[in-house]
């Protein structure tokens, strides 16, 4: 089957999976791409996810979709924010790391982050296909940090990575942030080594670095499609 993905900005994406519409981390959508997808009326259920409360992942403008939304699924930290309290709480599920939520259409599993909030694995029950969205989970190895802080960042990343070993997903969204310079794909390299994914979409790169995987990026004996979107509205279709 085909899975359609539209880039919004930063870590924001629309995923059309069968009759289900998933929207991740939509903090800015000047082209009204989400509204257009919803108004097209092709989907039986619409779900809006926000991994955490950082301004570049969560914005209250998605409140405008409350009539169409089957559910808002938010990282637990959003509950404490003024923006979060604006939403109809009967339509919001807040998730802490390592929790599950499901309804008739999807199952959501949450994982921890190396920043705040959570990462999501969403499985569409009709198709059995899963999507992983990392939120701000990454190996944030910043040039110029002290050796101690860089080691703490590595330890936090590796601890969470163990919980992801063997995870299957038709498609994974993972940060490859150009601000990290030569370290920008360090986390992604480790992530694809221990998981079983069908395709990778990079995110959190407002620098528009145009990153492309080197030949040694892929695990031994494996390869899969990789997409690094650069402008809002860019779209790709993946066969899963």
TrEMBL record:
Q: Which InterPro entries match?
A: RibonucZ/Hydroxyglut_hydro
Record has Ubl conjugation as a keyword: no
Q: Which domain of life is it from?
A: Bacteria
This entry's Gene Ontology molecular function terms read: hydrolase activity
What keywords are assigned to this protein?
A: Hydrolase
Checking PANTHER family in the record gives: MBL FOLD METALLO-HYDROLASE, METAL DEPENDENT HYDROLASE
Q: What is this protein called?
A: MBL fold metallo-hydrolase
């Amino acid at each position: 089957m085909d899975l359609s993905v539209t880039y919004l900005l930063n870590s924001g994406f629309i995923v059309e999976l069968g009759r289900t519409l998933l929207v991740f981390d939509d903090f800015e959508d000047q082209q009204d791409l989400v509204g257009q997808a919803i108004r097209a009326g092709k989907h039986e259920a619409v779900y809006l996810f926000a991994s955490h409360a950082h301004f570049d992942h969560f914005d209250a403008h998605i409140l405008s979709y409350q009539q169409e939304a089957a559910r808002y699924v938010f990282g637990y930290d959003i509950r404490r924010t003024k923006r979060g309290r604006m939403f109809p709480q009967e339509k919001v599920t807040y998730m802490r790391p390592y929790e599950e939520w499901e309804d008739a259409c999807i199952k959501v599993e949450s994982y921890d982050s190396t920043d705040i909030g959570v990462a999501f694995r969403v499985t569409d029950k009709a198709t059995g296909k899963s999507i992983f969205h990392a939120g701000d989970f990454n190996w944030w190895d910043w040039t110029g940090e002290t050796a101690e802080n860089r080691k703490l960042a590595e330890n936090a990343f590796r601890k969470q990575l163990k919980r992801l070993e063997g995870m299957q997903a038709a498609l994974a969204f993972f940060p490859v942030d150009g601000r990290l310079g030569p370290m920008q794909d360090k986390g992604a390299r480790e992530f694809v080594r221990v998981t079983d994914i069908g395709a990778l979409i990079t995110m959190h790169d407002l620098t528009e670095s145009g990153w492309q995987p080197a030949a040694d990026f892929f695990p031994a004996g494996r390869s899969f499609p990789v997409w690094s979107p650069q402008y809002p509205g860019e779209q790709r279709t993946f066969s899963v």
